[in-house]
Description:
By secondary structure, the protein is α+β, with helices and mostly antiparallel strands. 31% of the residues lie in helices and 40% in strands. The chain contains three helices and eight strands, in the order ααβββββββαβ. It has helices spanning 2-29, 31-38, 130-140; strands at residues 47-57, 63-75, 78-83, 94-97, 101-108, 111-118, 121-129, 145-146. An eight-stranded mixed β-sheet has the order 4-3-2-1-7-6-5-8. Strand 2 and strand 3 form a beta hairpin. The termini are far apart.
Amino acid sequence: xxxxLAVTLFPxxxxxxxxxxxxxxxxxxxxxxxxxHYLYRGEIRGVSRSFQGxxxxxxxxxxxxxxGCLTVTVDSGMLILKPWFIFGASQPPLAIPLEELMRADxxxxxxxxxxxxxxxxxxxxxxxxxxxxxxxxSQAGSPIRSAQASAF
Length: 152
């Protein structure tokens, strides 16, 4: 009887823990805060790149890494970030207007990356590779507005 109960409760406990961890990560990364301003419910069209990575957070020491689990889309002057469906309950798609993005190039050890910040929520960093930032700019047809890293 206890083995049957354990087999029955394990999936329920696993799903509850998964949802709790995803909820916590959305708060730590700032995704939840960005969603208050940039939540996207429409159909995603435009040019997309799947399996992309980014790091989001309030500081360099509190970053959540989205490694290869984002679909990045540029459509109608919007940067749309959508995580895999298994993260979708607590991390819905974001659509940030490109004119509201600021960009600064940064270097840490041997890694050069691009730091993006949205004007409505400048406390939250979105760190992407320079390659992905160049792709976003090429799809948008114009560069993302630059800022000095010290201005962030």
